[in-house]
Amino acid sequence: MSILSTRKAEKIDSLAEGGTSLAMDALRRTFRSPVAILGLVIVGLFVILAIISPFIAPKDPYRPYPELKAELTPSNIPGPMPGFLLGSDQNGYDFFSRLLVGAQQTLFVGVFATLIGVAVGMIIGGLAGAFGGWVDSVLMRLTDIMLSIPSLLLAISIAALLPGSQWTVIIAVAMIGVPVFARLLRGAMIAQRSSDHVLAATALGVKRKTIVFRHMLPNSIGPVIVQATLTLATAIIDAAALSFLGLGDSDWRRAEWGLMLGNAQELLSVKPSLAFFPAIAIIIVALGFTLLGESMRESLDPKNRR
Q: What is the DSSP string of 115-126?
């Protein structure tokens, strides 16, 4: 029986090899694109900065400095001065150090919001695609309800119901991506049902669990990964939007770009750079993830294959 099972698996895997080669070909075509390389460079620099920022920050980003607070008034926030490259923020903290460390917190919010959205969406989409029938109908009606609500309004509603914290922002932003990932994976798995290797596995009597986890899911996850890259960009922007609307993290001391941008909205006439630098940083990082994600999407599109 073990020899027969091994031969069955080898026969089915040989039918599925085309999916692997197409994925590798798409990856090669992605990194031949100058747009993808530019996006990868931006994302790479952002990730490196997020990792090393606590070690390269010239000052403690969570400590007020007397020399800054001495010149701090309601109508004057100190600008660049010796030892403080970008001067002070509205609370007497070193603004440049907070901007550096803010990369880490921004990446934390974006990555965890995306991971939670992917995980919950894949569970819903995987169950719907694997079982079909009434399970598919119930789960897809649930995602339809979520998709019928504008994404930012959905995030605002969730954030308003929960106590203000960083995890509230993460959960609110994550819920935006859940129906998108669920629909995407479910559609890809339904398309896999009629593929040769899945039909062969079914004809050979392979269990549904094995078919789903060994043959359908691995060949359906590519579009989900691409969408996750794009969702990371929107997650960072949506988190900043919640902070700007006063529904973000209640800890105003936390160095995070969206929160810094939200806290600076009343100080634009006093020191515009408090909002300008976090906003530019968010735009550049979102652009990097978008360029990379769009290039990956184009590479996976069958119309672009030669």
A: HHHHHHHHHHHH
